[in-house]
Each structure stands twice: as structure tokens, then as C-alpha cells.
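Subject: Trehalose 6-phosphate phosphatase

B.,
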Amino acid sequence: MDHCALFLDFDGTLVDIVERPEAVAIDPALPPILTCLQEQLNGALAIISGRPITFLDRAFAPCRFDSAGLHGLEHRIGDKIFLCDPNDHPDLRDMVRRLQDAVLSKPGLLIEDKGCSVALHWRLAPHEKDFARATAQAAVEALGAQYRIQYGKAVAEIAPSGAGKGSIIEQFLQQSPYRGRRPVFVGDDLTDENGFKVVNIRGGLSVRVGAGETVAAQRVGTPSDLRHLLSVWARTGTLSFDGR
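Prediction pasted inline below.
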């Protein structure tokens, strides 16, 4: 196991997708399993998420893991941390307010303000999908080339153009304790696909949770299935998957 580096998405991967982002719940057995894997990997375990690092720390407390938040806009390895400052994105801050106004008359549409990015959710109002996508697209076009839009499960997120799970995994792999290890990345959504591509190129193992077209080499059915698999990895001290 000490030759691998494990990267794990959060929503839809470690935890089940919920209608409201703030309502997510963590299986109490999960943090101890991840802590065990972290120790077996000599620290080379990281959560790679669209959530802010502060949220991830609260969710896993008192356990603490290396993390990349906001699709890589912020990250922490050991005691070294880089956080994104919302004040560096005044145009985006203004756009958040405009988006909040735009959905006032659309019950069920949710604006998730992450500080340095913003997500528009339509899970509670699937009939508003076209409106939501068009609104998000118009917003990113107004912001210009410094920002991009990425789609996920019933969500459109606007983030700085440099954000991406593939690029942050590459950064982790250049630093200790991840350097020189075979990457293993588990995710569930469109936002994880560029992470899968990076891992595949590096000869690692990419795993998709759930259905959907993917470049991932392997697949598990649900977050519950993954949590069971992680417990097996922790118990056996190996990151094997179908004999690999």
C-alpha cells in the first residue's frame, strides 16, 4: 500500500448526494476508516472536493486529512495550507448577488456561495433545469475568460479558470508524501473526469461511483459500496480492486 496515493471526492462518493448541500451526513464509521488508511499510506490520502476546506474539516472533525477544496482553488498538505480569498474575486462576488436575485422567483433553485466559486443547484426544481443552465451560462459569459462553468449532477458551478481536480492532483503528486506514488482517484461526477484522465495517464487507478459515461477504469455502485470497499482496504492493508 505504501506505493499508492489515495484521492477521494466527497459528495456522491464518500457521502450520498442530498437535496440541500448543507444537509449532508457522514457515516460515523467513515472517519476512523480513512484515518486507518491515512496511516497505512504514510499520510498519502487526500479529500479532493468542490466544498471549501473549512467545511470538510468540520464534517470530519476531530479527524483531519489533507484536502483540496473548491476544485483545487485551495489545498492543504500537512501544515502547509493555501486558501482562496473571496476578496480577490470582486466580479464574482457581485455575480453571486445577481444570481441570488435571479432565482428569487424560482422556488427550489439554490445558490451555494463558496466564496471563490458559486454553484447553482436545481435538484429541488428539476423542471427549472433549462433556466438554471441558461442563467449560469449567461453569468460566466459576463464574467469573461477568467472564469469557467462546470456541470455536475443537477448543478452548474462557476469557478476561476484555473480550478480543476486533475491539475490539483498533479500538484499533490509533486509533493511529499505523494511524490513517486501510484495515484488512485475515486469520484462520481463530471467534475471528476479530468481527475480520472490525469490518473490514467500516470498509470494509476480511476474509479467511478455510480452510473454514467466515464473514462474511469473501474466502477462501484454507490457511496455505501465504496465505504465498504474502503473498510476492506483498511482491514487488508491493500488498495486492490478486482485484482489490480
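The CA atoms of residues 57 and 166 lie 22 Å apart.

T.
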